[in-house]
Description:
The protein is built from 16 helices and no strands. By secondary structure, the protein is an all-alpha fold.
Amino acid sequence: MSSPTEAQAPRTSAVSANAPGGATSAKTQRISALDFTKGALVLIMVLYHWINYFIGPDWGYYRYLRFLTPSFIFVTGFMISNVYLAKYDPCDPRLPKRLFTRGFKLLIIFIALNLARLLIVPLVGTGVVSESLLDVRNIYTIFVSGNFQVVGGKLVSFSILVPISYLLMLSGALMLPYRLYRRTFHVLCVLLLVSSLALEFTGLESANLDLITIGMLGVLAGFRPISRVDDFVRHPYLLGLAYLGYLVAITIWNVPFWLQLIGVPLSLMVIYLAGISGGCSGAIGSEFILLGKYSLFGYISQIAILQILAVSLRHLELGLFVLILSFVAAFALTIISVEIVDRLRAKVPSMDSAYKAVFA
């Protein structure tokens, strides 16, 4: 969800990356493919949240969308090594500062959004808000374990921002030892992986630890040159067969952590393959890329949009027409909100500065 390209003027680079004749650099095209992947994740997340609001939490097929949340943090980790470390030298003091500042901003955004939710939700009646967020147990759940299913109910929203912020700040802190030992991230990833699997084996799971571990796997994946990544995913039949095996596995065993370690990169490779195989071209591809550049804003706006739709349509019976209307409106309004912000940034310098101050 975090992206260094979000701070750039987006539409021109997205379109030029697909210009005929290969006039642009490969690097621009590769960034476009990553943005395409993030944009696809944003739209799939709209589907996920729409189901949550209009179908309900008891929908029997959530397991097939469980790759979504960890996919965002995997992509964040990938971009730390593949984009940030390509832009900054590891010895550049701006790099750890950039990563730590970015992570800290996400944590502040998470807190601010949930404080706003505490005030707004009771007024509009869009759901149940915990009355004891300052309870020590709830604070531990939010900022340490991340095991929201244990406490029940909707304790907070935008919870993925917490482990993403931790991953960014942790990566910033690791830049100093990384200068001395280039396997620093590899060693830490192994330690995190062993800890997560050990906790799962003993029944003492930590969702935040699991997500940070998946994010660190993304960092390791990002150390590979993007050309090697492209070559690796350009085997559609093998990739399709592996993904089919993953679907069979989660149908049988649900989605334990060890299966997420397989399913997240597999799902991302399928989406990324669509991007490098022509998905980035044309008007639809440009919209996906634009959504990817504004992935954090798109993630936040879609939840607000679905809250409003839920309130507006709740007096109507959830017939087929209402379901279709809410579904189309959720997708359309999310795209429109991103388009509006993109155009405002291009035309109003103060809006561009405000966006960068919050999201960049």
